[in-house]
Amino acid sequence: MFSRPQAFLCSVLWLLVAAAAPVLANQGPLVEVVQAEKTLVRDELITFGSLRSDESVMIRPEIPGRLAALHFREGQSVEAGALLISLDDAIARAELAQAQANLSLAEKSHQRVQMLFKRGASNAQALDEASAQQQAARASLALAQARLDKTRIHAPHDGVLGLRHVSPGDYLEAGQDIVNLEVLDPLKVDFRIPQKAVSQIRLRQTIEVSLDAYPGERFRGAIYAINPRLDEAGRSQAVRAHIDNADGRLSPGQFVKVLVILAERPDALVIPEEAVMPVGEQLLVNLVVDGKVELREVRLGKRMDGKVEVREGLLGDEVLISAGWQKVRAGMAVRSKVVEPAP
Length: 343
Hints:
23% of the residues lie in helices and 43% in strands. It contains three helices and 20 strands.
């Protein structure tokens, strides 16, 4: 049994609950609501590829000879025309001196025969022979000079040298590997796309590259070459892009994930995926308009992590029910709890 004060308190509480019940009933169920957000949405084609030097050349001698001197350090940056290798040029210089002497003699002989021919003391055949010997001597001199020039090897373009394969004093054969020279800025990105996506790829299309060495980072580039012929074995098309590497963080040979940007919509409407209500073949969302539920059919686009793009059906200023729409129906009054969208 309750005491008189306790009984009075219970009566008051019962009256308060009874009075509040119709008010709560009129307000309707509590639902969570969000507003559609505008954000960048991109259609992407994901594939994989490799980084390559923009230019890559193996420095090799064109003539055999003993390696006299190396004029570079491994890993050094060099400019076009920088002297890299000197071969022993003693024989080449001797051949050049001999060719110069032969040319001097041939020129003097030609001058004498020409003088005699003018005086009538020589015939045309002797003049032709002297002229031919002079031309042959000039050709021999040019050949000797070319052989001497090939004892000194210069960088064909700006770049970074790799690791050398020889040492001073080695005897080198023609075509033997000495050191590689790489152009590291920009870099090439080689990748392949499947046959079904060929029509979506075009020149100057933007790509983004990511790799395990730099988690969470993306490096942008652009397509500059597309192989017009598909690979018959894999039915794929080879594509090549350029990517800036001014800071030297990327290296040739790295395996990369490539995202080809097919389309960008900077102001696309995005809503939580759980706000969409499938009804048969229709896709509906529940809006809160003047405190009551209103149904709206929508057409969806790209799906992302927990979110989906709305292509048609919304203007962007609507308030949508994201949680609790299962317990409401069109025209019902509801109480709203605003939920901040997830980042």
